[in-house]
From TrEMBL:
<dbReference type="InterPro" id="IPR023696">
    <property type="entry name" value="Ureohydrolase_dom_sf"/>
</dbReference>
<feature type="binding site">
    <location>
        <position position="221"/>
    </location>
    <ligand>
        <name>Mn(2+)</name>
    </ligand>
</feature>
<feature type="binding site">
    <location>
        <position position="137"/>
    </location>
    <ligand>
        <name>Mn(2+)</name>
    </ligand>
</feature>
<dbReference type="GO" id="GO:0046872">
    <property type="term" value="F:metal ion binding"/>
</dbReference>
<feature type="binding site">
    <location>
        <position position="219"/>
    </location>
    <ligand>
        <name>Mn(2+)</name>
    </ligand>
</feature>
<dbReference type="GO" id="GO:0008783">
    <property type="term" value="F:agmatinase activity"/>
</dbReference>
<dbReference type="InterPro" id="IPR020855">
    <property type="entry name" value="Ureohydrolase_Mn_BS"/>
</dbReference>
<dbReference type="InterPro" id="IPR005925">
    <property type="entry name" value="Agmatinase-rel"/>
</dbReference>
<keyword id="KW-0378">Hydrolase</keyword>
<dbReference type="InterPro" id="IPR006035">
    <property type="entry name" value="Ureohydrolase"/>
</dbReference>
<feature type="binding site">
    <location>
        <position position="135"/>
    </location>
    <ligand>
        <name>Mn(2+)</name>
    </ligand>
</feature>
<comment type="similarity">
    <text>Belongs to the arginase family. Agmatinase subfamily.</text>
</comment>
<keyword id="KW-0479">Metal-binding</keyword>
<protein>
    <submittedName>
        <fullName>Agmatinase</fullName>
    </submittedName>
</protein>
<dbReference type="Pfam" id="PF00491">
    <property type="entry name" value="Arginase"/>
</dbReference>
<feature type="binding site">
    <location>
        <position position="139"/>
    </location>
    <ligand>
        <name>Mn(2+)</name>
    </ligand>
</feature>
<dbReference type="GO" id="GO:0033389">
    <property type="term" value="P:putrescine biosynthetic process from arginine, via agmatine"/>
</dbReference>
Length: 290
């Protein structure tokens, strides 16, 4: 586990406003991993993403926006309880403090269970919110590895606790139990094999599936492993980087995106590509969703 004193603000110390009150964007590092299914290391994901963010250039190449001037404040990292249900409530309370002030919240995980608390907080703050999930997996199991709050259960818990409409994009791995739940709930995932790399019509369909106010959760395994190899379950056949950015751009332009998270980063020793790309995705959320 990385010690709290080793964390740096997103973009480095020069980016950090003097106080959170002046910030438009608040970064919440959630250092949590419990009962992973396969690869490990996501607990330290926020640290590695923040370290990589210091190496980014502040000018966005598509919009020519200097994201370093948007007012980004990084909170001290939260190390939640080892009890999954307790951890969810701790993360929910941390997110509530930011969302009540109507600031844009970006939570950094951690395994995908870090999304439950912030989504619950966002649903209470913004009634009628919808969830855009970028993921290789449906995450609709009722229980996994001894917990109903495991990373493989997060969308089921979110649907049960918030009733929010969901658009699940990039899906290509799931269990028979999850297929049954999809059919029962009449969900309509956007499966990876149906997404044409030469045609972005699917993005319009995603927009139609979402209400006006949106929370975006980016499980990095939603991207192809050629883009993000450093994740716990790297499933082949995922979204490209440019497909993800075009989706974020469209949702940011057409919807009111109030919060997001990036999760499941697991560093591979000797390479920085996954954490650098994840940090770059964060900046795209800033420039397109504010």
């Amino acid at each position: 586990m990385i010690k709290p004193e080793n964390f740096i603000p997103f973009g480095g110390n020069e980016i950090q406003p003097t106080d959170a009150e002046r910030a438009r964007i608040v970064i919440l590092p959630l250092c949590y991993e419990h009962a992973p299914s396969y690869g490990t290391g996501s607990e330290d994901g926020p640290y590695h993403l923040l370290m990589a963010s210091e190496q980014l250039e502040a000018m966005d190449e598509e919009t020519l926006i200097n994201w370093g001037t948007l007012g980004i404040h990084t909170l001290p990292p939260l190390f939640p309880s080892g009890d999954p249900e307790t951890a969810v409530m701790q993360m929910k309370r941390a997110a509530e403090k930011v969302l009540r002030e109507k600031k844009f919240l970006l939570s950094l995980g951690g395994d995908h269970a870090i999304s439950i608390g912030p989504v619950m907080a966002a649903a209470e703050t913004y009634p009628g919110i919808g969830i855009l999930q970028i993921d290789a997996h449906l995450d609709l199991r009722d229980e996994w590895n001894g917990s109903r709050y495991n990373h493989a259960c997060i969308m089921r818990r979110i649907i049960e606790k918030t009733g929010a409409p969901v658009a699940q994009v990039g899906i290509r791995s799931f269990s028979p139990e999850e297929v049954e739940y999809v059919q029962q709930q009449k969900l309509r995932p956007f499966y990876a094999h149906d997404i044409d790399p030469r045609d972005d019509t699917w993005i319009g369909e995603v927009l139609c599936a979402l209400p006006d106010t949106v929370y975006i959760t980016v499980d990095l395994d939603g991207l192809d492993p050629s883009v993000i190899p450093g994740t716990g379950t790297p499933e082949p056949g995922g979204l490209t980087y440019r497909q993800l950015i075009r989706l974020i751009r469209a949702v940011g332009r057409e919807k009111n995106v109030v919060a997001a998270d990036i999760n499941e980063l697991a560093k591979i020793p000797g390479t920085q590509v996954s954490e650098f790309t994840a940090a770059k995705i964060a900046t795209k959320l800033f420039v397109y969703c504010l």
